Amino acid sequence: MTGTRDGAIARAQQEYDDGTFLDRLASLVAVQTESHPPERKSELERYCHQVLGPMVSVLGFETRVIENPEPIHGPVLVATRIEDPALPTVLFYGHGDVVRAMPERWRPGLDPWKLTVEGDRIYGRGTVDNKGQHLLGIDAMGAVMDERGGRLGFNAKIMVETGEEAGSPGLLPFIRAHRDLLAADVFIALDGPRVSRVVPDIMLGTRGGIAMDLVISLREGGHHSGHWGGLLKDPGVIMAHAIASIISRDGRILVPGWTPAHVPEAVTAAARAVISEPQPGAPVPEPDWGEPGLSNAERIYAWSSAIVLASISGQPEGPVNAVGGTARARIQLRHTVDVDGAQVVPALRAHLDAQGFPEVEVVPVTERDMFLASRTDPNDPWVRTVEASFARTVGRQPNVIPTIGASGPSEFFKQELGVPVIWIPHSYGGCGQHGPDEHGLGTLFREGLGLMAGLWWDIGEGRQ
């Protein structure tokens, strides 16, 4: 074995300094990989076959582009490099698709399909979500191999799907069909924004998302409010009281079974230790809203939240003087693995019955953006490996975030492959992903190249 850890980090960061990384990122951004089939399927295929695939192949990976189980959607690139079956195997994940470009909404002088560098900002659709981030991990592997004389020191599998922004259609059956191909000891993905530009993040899972409609159907049509008001039940009033029995005036969840009965101490400690920074233009958390006694970080990373997505009774667009017959509201619960998602709807039904609302029907909503909750144990040895490696590289402890507020496909990998799942973001909250003027920060890309080169080096040294 040749070379040093510092040498690998220096090689990785030199790729940013000499423009190599940005040149490669520009070629990825130029491929118009909007995941809105069937308009862009040919571009998604080209990204895998002709652009990213060759970048991975030159590192000694055997690449395959595999059709999506839902053929209307884009394929999946899987690249494998096995140096020794006895060594640990890392499954590295990213996605090559992007949201709609919306070029008409970008600032004059910016083209979503052309990389533009202005100071520390690097503009282009996919710069952070997710082309720049998976390229960062791949280039860091290349730097380690160069420093080690052609070896990584571990086995690596790279999986890049092309439908994440469309809700990862076909992902679960794909994982099940290719379980042996994707088998690994740990899943590591680079995606999302950090909560602080100063402290690196290690994210261990996502909250589950469950939506349900409350439906009240008392009678057909409306009846004159002067003649029937005070005689007929008003579904709007009943709905208001039903919602008030679910979420209190100060935002507390009142449904038994919707909040954790117990939160592991390691999760609480990790959440309390998170260092974040205010985001320009973001609202300020309300101090008197939500579960009392918890910090803001605990409320997001270790607890449940419930909101009313929509509510309607009567005809808001043109109110009439009538007692309506129907009302409808959609409630969403975000929850951690400490709440059984399968029991959320039954728990609400039992609660409404106990509160005297038998006329309120609960209708589960099955939509593509509803995911299972997932969380890797903060004390997992692989988590400790990443934490120690990052601290060694930047000289400060990273954030270990048990469960981010958003939902995602983490549990698909965790359940089907039986591996710890770790997300490592290298963007920031003001990056504009999913909107116009998406951009990454050069300082975070450069630091990220060093962080990932250090991590790959440590894994190759057996520091896991």
pLDDT < 50 stretches: none
Average pLDDT number: 95
Q: Major sheet: order of its strands?
A: 1-2-6-3-7-19
Largest sheet: 6 strands, mixed
**Beta-sheet strand percentage?**
15-25%
The percentage helix is 25-40%
Structural class: alpha/beta
Query: How many β-strand runs?
Result: 21
- Count the helices. How many? 14
Rg from alpha-carbon coordinates = 25 Å
What labels describe this entry?
alpha/beta, elongated, six-stranded mixed β-sheet, 464 residues, four-stranded antiparallel β-sheet, 32% helix
Record the SSE blueprint.
Blueprint: H1 5-17, H2 20-29, H3 41-57, E1 62-66, E2 76-81, E3 89-95, E4 116-118, E5 121-123, H4 131-147, E6 155-161, H5 171-177, H6 179-182, E7 186-189, E8 193-194, E9 201-203, E10 205-206, E11 208-217, E12 223-224, H7 225-228, H8 235-246, H9 265-272, H10 296-301, E13 305-313, E14 322-323, E15 326-335, H11 344-354, E16 360-365, E17 374-375, H12 381-394, E18 399-401, H13 410-417, E19 421-423, E20 427-428, E21 439-441, H14 442-460
Parallel strand pairs: 3-6, 3-7, 7-19, 8-20, 9-18
Antiparallel strand pairs: 1-2, 2-6, 4-5, 5-21, 10-17, 11-15, 11-16, 12-14, 13-15
